[in-house]
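Sanity check record (used in CI):
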Amino acid sequence: MPAQHLGWRAALISLLLLAALLMVWHLATLPKESAASAAQDEYAKLMGKSSGAAKRDGFPGLAQMGETIRKELSNPFYDNGPNDKGIGIQLAYSLGRVGLGFAIAAVVAVPLGFLLGMSPLMQRALNPFIQILKPISPLAWMPLALYTIKDSSVSGVFVIFICSVWPMLMNTAFGVASVRRDWLNVAKTLEVAPLRRAFLVILPAAAPTILTGMRISMGIAWLVIVAAEMLVGGTGIGYFVWNEWNNLSLTSVIFAILVIGVTGMVLDLIFARLQKWVTYVE
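Expected output for Nitrate ABC transporter, permease protein:
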């Protein structure tokens, strides 16, 4: 089957699944008439209010979600104070923290991964430390970071660094160690300098594996920053979710969840495209 036809069929199935999900959501959130609701409507009439003015309980329907999405996207960058910022500003704060922590992790993990991949001695020496530190939850570092750094935003960047460094480090070391011996032997025969060999032979060969590690790290970082911002507050998409929950705005919480998911998908697609650019067929 041609790849183009397969893509169209996959897109059609995705649209059908989305339509089915929205239909189930709509049917599940249809208002149910009961004696209590009828009494509430009668009370509203006696008080001179319309029955529609009563606040609706339960899970929000599609109409409510559509209104919230329209409202949030109509002015996503408004700023009315510390606890009232648009979704665009909150998302920008989160992306900034993730980008900075991820960049610092890349600067540390990639050169160190090269060292581990090219030196079995250093790999054995550092492996115990890596195996001890790698399983620790990034959020477990948050109290220590807050105590030492005393800044919630910088602490969030530190947590992103911690969670991003391990997948990049391990994948870089694996990719460098897996470079074909034939290529390294040819470079050695031609008396290529070590630094030149690292950039012209090892890096292109290990690039797909390194990008895979970066892709995994970015996915983990985006997961962690939302949880971290819920803990420390202030700004960010995680804080937006927690603040809207405290305001009992379930529609805004669901909208923020959708934004988090779409942003994570876009970030993953970016790294998938970069991975294709550096992958070659032997």
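Residues 49-56 have pLDDT under 50 and may be disordered. If this sentence no longer matches the regenerated tokens, the check is flagged for review.
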